[in-house]
Design brief:
The complex is a heterodimer of chains A (289) and B (233).
Chain A: H1 2-30, H2 37-54, H3 59-86, H4 93-112, E1 128-130, E2 133-135, H5 137-159, H6 161-171, H7 173-178, H8 183-205, H9 215-230, H10 235-255, H11 258-275
Antiparallel strand pairs in A: 1-2
Helix pairs in contact in A: 1-5, 1-6, 1-8, 1-9, 1-10, 2-3, 2-4, 2-8, 2-9, 3-4, 3-8, 5-6, 5-8, 9-10, 9-11, 10-11
Chain B: E1 2-11, E2 14-24, E3 29-33, H1 40-48, E4 55-60, E5 63-64, H2 70-74, E6 78-81, H3 93-100, H4 110-116, H5 118-121, H6 133-146, E7 151-155, H7 163-178, E8 182-186, H8 190-196, E9 199-204, E10 207-213, H9 214-219, H10 221-227
Parallel strand pairs in B: 3-8, 3-9, 6-7, 7-8
Antiparallel strand pairs in B: 1-2, 1-4, 4-5, 9-10
Helix pairs in contact in B: 3-6
Classes of the chains: A mainly alpha (289), B alpha/beta (233).
């Protein structure tokens, strides 16, 4: 059983990390968060279901369409739920992003229906055997895809000129603007990218969980827990925290009970906030003079 | 080239600048001096687009820029080297210089800019945060030059520098002007600033209280008594 638990823990953990990285990206560039991140996971799964399973588009095309839809939603969130309040220095984005998420969930309820549906995938049909344990290939694909995508985002940030502009905005927004970086566009880009990561997570998770309008809520919350554990300011901390959270969750569910899973997970967050509020990878905040 | 008329800037309730008018001509070095809290930094930040004016006009070659965001002002050739350097400490020296060129996207000025700052050339691949204070100031100026300014705004370039480095920085300001770049310089070290400038303005509590040729200001007994009293360098 331990192998299965570890595999599913790593699989889910990688997705938490991916979604949480989205929180980190928008936080770094604008000190705001998209609290509908979990709903974007759902959006990704529902759109992928709609165009691939229902409409029969080839998988590759369906994935591209899903990512485009996720990015578009990220831009909408930034434009109507964040920017008006961000420029006014008000924390209302906290509520407005949640509100947008609820709207998306309701739209999905109406168009997709309340019931959970299975997302057929050849990778989740029959288990393969790994060290004597049966696991779905999809579960092996998840951590792999997660690591590649998380690595890809880091390469983008460090190796491309536009990525370095985003880093500059994250480091010192005003100085970045003074150098000629279009700061609002950088913030919008961070929102689009962060939504793409959540949308990908939705597509990858769809065959394992069932697709439903409410599937994203808990994932979004857990990803937020992961972002806090890892440190909102630290991409590396978040990746590690994602895997840790997934593993702890799987082990608690396997050896204690599924009911205890969330209790232990969120207790970890509270413990972290008490002893090290800046997270695993974050740096203790220093006051700038 | 730069014309400021009747500029007022507010910080919440407080008016940081009242009715400030100021000019910088082509190829001029203009110094703004005055005590702490006089509004010198607010003035530069407003010209650069980091602050929005409450009233007044700012034009560059007749084109209005008051209230435009910073990234648009840069494209008019106005570049602020901010107080406290504000370099991107988590990125390499090279990346900082490249980011200076964001507004036009051409990095081919780098050899020319590095030729003035040999210390930076040796540290191109080091994180900028690891540089000494003086080197960080050089990097901040070099990064500003990468933007191809026609008007360079320098905010307290001497801050935190050893006297020798202060002199080097001011020599650099002269060389920058010699290449045709106008300079608007805000400085606590008033005597030194007036020494390098063509003209000067004295700012006190948000108002221009004296203006004129730098030499005349430096000799004006009222200015000397009120603002040049404590000579630091």
């Amino acid at each position: 059983m331990i192998i299965q638990l570890l595999v599913s823990g790593l699989a889910l953990g990688s997705m938490y990390g991916l979604v949480a990285l989205g929180y980190h990206m928008t936080w770094a560039t604008s000190r705001t968060l998209n609290f509908s991140q979990g709903h974007v996971v759902m959006l990704g799964a529902v759109v992928a279901y709609g165009v691939h399973v229902a409409a029969g588009w080839p998988l590759a095309v369906a994935v591209i369409a899903t990512l485009a839809a996720s990015a578009a939603f990220g831009l909408v969130v930034e434009r109507i739920a964040v920017r008006p309040f961000f420029t006014a220095g008000s924390p209302v984005w906290l509520l407005s992003t949640i509100a947008l998420g609820i709207i998306v969930e309701n739209v999905a309820m109406v168009t997709f229906g309340k019931d959970a549906r299975a997302f057929p995938s050849t990778l989740a049909l029959k288990p393969v055997f790994l060290l004597g344990a049966g696991v779905y290939p999809q579960e092996l694909l998840l951590p792999l895809a997660g690591v590649v995508l998380m690595g890809g985002t880091q390469l983008f940030y460090h190796r491309t000129f536009y990525g370095r502009q985003l880093k500059a905005v994250a480091w010192d927004r005003e100085a970045a603007g003074l150098m000629g970086i279009h700061v609002p566009r950088a913030v919008a880009t961070a929102y689009a990218l962060s939504a793409v990561l959540a949308g990908v997570a939705g597509v990858l998770l769809a065959p394992l969980l069932n697709v439903s309008p409410t599937m994203g809520t808990l994932i979004g919350l857990k990803a937020f827990a992961v972002a806090i554990l890892g440190g909102l300011g630290s991409a590396a901390g978040i990746v590690v925290a994602g895997f840790l959270y997934g593993l702890v969750e799987a082990l608690v569910a396997g050896y204690v009970s599924t009911g205890a899973r969330e209790i232990v997970g969120f207790a970890l967050v509270i413990a972290m906030l008490t002893v090290r509020p800046w997270g695993l990878g974050g740096r203790r905040p220093t006051r700038r003079v | 080239m730069l014309k400021i008329r009747g500029l007022a800037v507010r910080h919440g309730e407080i008016e940081a600048l009242h009715d400030v008018s100021l000019d910088v001509g082509e190829g001029e070095i203009v110094a703004v001096i005055g005590p702490n809290g006089a509004g010198k930094t607010s003035l530069l930040r407003t010209v650069a687009g980091a602050l929005r004016p409450a009233r007044g006009s700012i034009t560059i070659d007749g084109r209005p820029i008051a209230g435009a965001p910073a990234w648009r002002v840069v494209r008019h050739g106005i570049v602020l080297v901010p107080e406290g350097r504000r370099i991107f400490g988590d990125q390499t020296v090279r990346a900082n210089l490249e980011l200076g060129a964001v507004s036009h996207g051409r990095f081919d000025d780098m050899p020319r800019v590095l030729a003035r700052f040999p210390a930076l050339r040796e540290r191109l691949e080091q994180p900028a945060g690891a540089l000494s204070g003086g080197q960080q100031q050089m990097l901040a100026i070099a990064r500003g030059l990468m933007a191809r300014p026609r008007l360079l705004l320098l905010d307290e370039p001497s801050l935190g520098l050893a006297p020798r480095l202060v002199r080097e920085t001011f020599d650099e300001v002269r060389r920058i002007r010699a290449e045709g770049v106008s300079v608007l310089l805000v400085e606590q070290l008033a005597a030194l600033a007036l020494g390098v400038a063509d003209r000067g303005y004295v700012l006190d509590r948000g108002r221009v209280v004296a203006a004129g040729a730098a030499r005349d200001l430096a000799a004006d007994p009222r200015v000397v008594a009120a603002y040049l009293g404590r000579r630091v360098v």
